[in-house]
Amino acid sequence: MSQVTIDRNEIDIVIAAFRSDLTSFLEEWRPIISRFHLIIVQDPDLKEGLKIPNGFDVDVYTKSDIDKLVSASHASMFSGYACRYFGYLVSKRKYIVSIDDDCSPAKDNNGDVVDIVTQHITNLKTPATPLFFNTLYDPYRKGSDFVRGYPFSLRSGVPCVLSCGLWLNLADFDAPTQSLKPELRNSRYVDAVLTVPKNSLMPMSGINIAFDRETVGPAILPALKLAKEGKVRWETMEDVWCGLVVKVVCDHLQLGVKTGIPYVWRNERGSAIDSLKKEWQGVKLMEELIPFFQTLKLSQDAVTAEDCVMEMAVAIKKGMGSKHPELANAAGNMVEWVKIWKEVGSRVLI
Amino acid sequence: MSVPATTVTPPLADDLDIVIPTIRNLDFLEQWRSFFQPYHLIIVQDGDPSKTIRVPDGFDYELYNRNDINRILGTKASCISFKDSACRCFGFLVSKKKYIFTIDDDCFVAKDPSGQEINALAQHIHNLLTPSTPYFFNTLYDPYREGADFVRGYPFSLREGVTTAISHGLWLNIPDYDAPTQLVKPLERNSRYVDAVLTIPKGTLFPMCGMNLGFHRELIGPAMYFGLMGDGQPIGRYDDMWAGWCAKVICDHLGLGVKTGLPYIWHSKASNPFVNLKKEYKGIYWQEEIIPFFQSVILPKDCTTPQKCYVELAKLVKEKLGPIDPYFGKLSGEMVTWVNAWNELNPSTDVAAVKNIDAAAPKKK
Questions:
Q1: What ipTM was estimated for this complex?
Q2: Of B118, B121, B106, nearest in space to B12 by CA
Q3: Do A133 and B200 form a contact (C-beta atoms < 8 A)?
Q4: Looking at the complex, does the CB of residue B288 fall below 8 Å from at least one CB of chain A?
Q5: Which of A75, B56, B154, B217 sits 20 to 30 Å CA-CA off B94?
Q6: Are the Cβ atoms of B151 and A153 closer than 8 angstroms?
Q7: What one-character DSSP code corresponds to residue B104?
Q8: pLDDT tens, B141-163?
Q9: pTM for the full model?
Q10: Of B137, B152, B192, the CB nearest to A143
Q11: What is the secondary structure of A274-322 as a DSSP string?
């Protein structure tokens, strides 16, 4: 297995800021992220200026930057959790690593601090294996390999374009689950990364992800906004929607998605019960979204992520738009996103 | 901690058989004694039937050698491999229990990272008695494990899961590599304990290893035929693979689940890679065509039992894989023989009683 190089010129770390004082957050992450370029996007609703400690190579984007770059009618696409996508848009690098601002570095089973950047980039720079399941998980990890019975023609894998990490302590459960089990914390560090098989959908959590912006950036998009969209993960489905879209795109384009390590430590924030009191629109929506996305087929003409997204938007509007106005909006946002992506002319520097 | 007033029966003590193929001895059972002793063993003795296999004292077991297999199955004995651990499926056939756990005689008790001995059987039982989730991937792995649950975005209508039919365990120390990999990496050992059980999604095939495996015999037993391997056959070390591909396709069709991950056992013996290469050689080429075949199989809606599914699969094997090599035509025939043997030895209540097979007194000390 070849050595993976972590080249700072290839990587942007994108953080959406929901609180103005980022000192403790950035200090905690300093050993891991200070050598990389940071893009911090301030939640447009946050009025105070951001407090950022010295020693970081950082660009900050605020509401006025968003308003300048995209037309006023589309600025709302980047509200709340979706403001991080603005960071993806303006990035000029190949890989993005993105985490929520309520996460701290985690420790692995040996007590070592988890370097999420190295692990995410390693996941992205080694192939994924979606066409056949390897029972020893990622065969490209040191000490592992393909098992007996794994077809040799499938052993070169496909490019991995999305790496979904996990969370210790406060796991990404929905509000009903966390309310029912208020003491439930994730203390199990599962030392594995594996490919999500082809044609298998999964719920992507935006809390801790990394992706190949060059290949799949157009499909990592802000689209679904719930009526009562909030500032805690219990009150949004924007990342889950994005995950369904990007998985269909990846399956169609023969690209891979990995899940597992690295872990972050997710700190306590908000109240599941309070979030539960809001109408849980997202939960109901998932019931219909899964069967729909599972049967979505893209044409042979869709050969890029942009093509795929445009086709999907049409299908979503047609198939679900009339029954669910928020999905018609989501479809519209998807089309807008691809347009903006092209206009901003986001190109990779290196 | 309080002590129960009455003895606590180990789970499924009356509902599970442990099937062990062996050609040498069963000394390894000593290490497993505290975990296995409450359960009934079915030993399938491969190779020379005149050899006596010593079973450690205190175990409740039946033992079958080749003579028994021939006697019990008559002409149908042709479907049971000789000089290959594939013969283990004879044990599945003659068992009368609801669940099977099968393990190789070079597999020992492993320790988890805290140093505690792993009761592999108990973990398999837990895996089998909790649902699987093949229709949507849960990123926190098995949601039914203590300390885990379904993640945000997981549809509530899918949270009941489906019945688990197969529990596939893993191996520390000697990993289950094929011969080419063993030759290239003779010293590699699996030392990574991955603390997870997960469901293999619907529509995804996997390489099923038979050395540490549990399954629901009533739901999927007829599909757990380990094929024609070993003596007189052009291929070996694909017995469990074959059973796994067939069983997964059928599980997907019938809405049953397959789990993989914990428990780990400690695999102590590395088989000779040169011998393995000779056995696997044809398989390495054939699997390139076998996999697309299984990936494209669609079973008709009226295949509502594992037997019906398996007979249909046998037909498709003959039709689609037959052109690759005459072996597949033969295999297809023996797949049907297997199902017939299964039905004969396991008559269901709505089928007319078949004439009694003289299963004779099992050898017991």
A1: 0.94
A2: B121
A3: yes
A4: yes
A5: B56
A6: no
A7: -
A8: 999 999 999 999 999 999 999 99
A9: 0.93
A10: B192
A11: HHHHS--HHHHHHHHHHHHHHH----TT--SHHHHHHHHHHHHIIIIIT
Give CA–CA dist B263/B209, Å, rounded.
13
Task: List all residues of chain A from 278 to 307 with a beta carbon under 8 Å from chain B.
Answer: 282-283, 286-287, 290
Query: Residue B191 CB: number of other CB atoms within 10 A?
Result: 9
Pairs from B31-36 (Cβ < 8 Å, separation ≥ 24): B31/B108, B31/B109, B32/B108, B32/B109, B33/B58, B35/B109, B35/B119, B35/B120, B35/B121, B35/B122, B36/B121
Q: pLDDT tens digit string along A82-120?
A: 999 999 999 999 999 999 999 999 999 999 999 999 999
Would you tell me the crossing angle of helices A281-295 and A238-253 to the nearest 10 degrees?
10
Does A152 sit within 8 Å of B284, measured CB to CB?
A: yes
In this complex, which of A137, A153, A164 lies closest to B139 when CB atoms are compared?
A164
Give the CA distances from residue B304 to residues B253, B256, B299, in Å, rounded to whole numbers and listed in that order.
9, 12, 10
Helix axes A23-33, A116-125, angle to 10 degrees: 50
User: What CA–CA distance (Å, rounded) separates B23 from B52?
Assistant: 10
State the pLDDT confidence band at A346, using cuts at 50, 70 and 90: low
Residues 204-233 of B with CB under 8 A from A: 204-209
Residue in A184, A200, A240 closest to B149 by CB:
A184
> Can you tell me whether residue B132 is helix, strand or coil?
strand
Do A202 and B291 lie within an 8 Å CB cutoff? no
Answer whether A245's CB lies under 8 Å from A252's CB. no
Asked if the Cβ–Cβ distance from A143 to B153 is below 8 Å, we say no
Phi, psi dihedral angles at A95 (to 5 degrees): -115, 145
B112, B146, B150, B151, best to mutate vs chain A, most A CBs in 10 Å: B151
DSSP classification of residue A197: P
Mark A181-211 as b/e (b = at least 16 C-beta within 10 Å).
Answer: eeebebebbbbbbbbbbbebbbbbbbbbbbb
- B244 CB neighbours in chain A (<8 A) are 149
Distance CA B42, CA B45 (A): 10
Residue B240 exposure: Cα atoms within 13 Å on the Cβ side: 25
* Chain A positions in Cβ-Cβ contact with residue B155 (cut-off 8 Å): 286-287, 290
C-alpha–C-alpha distance, residues A272 and A256, integer Å: 33
The single-letter code of the amino acid at A187 is: S
CB contact under 8 A, A174 and B151: yes
- Between residues 26 and 45 of chain A, which touch chain B (CB distance below 8 Å)? none
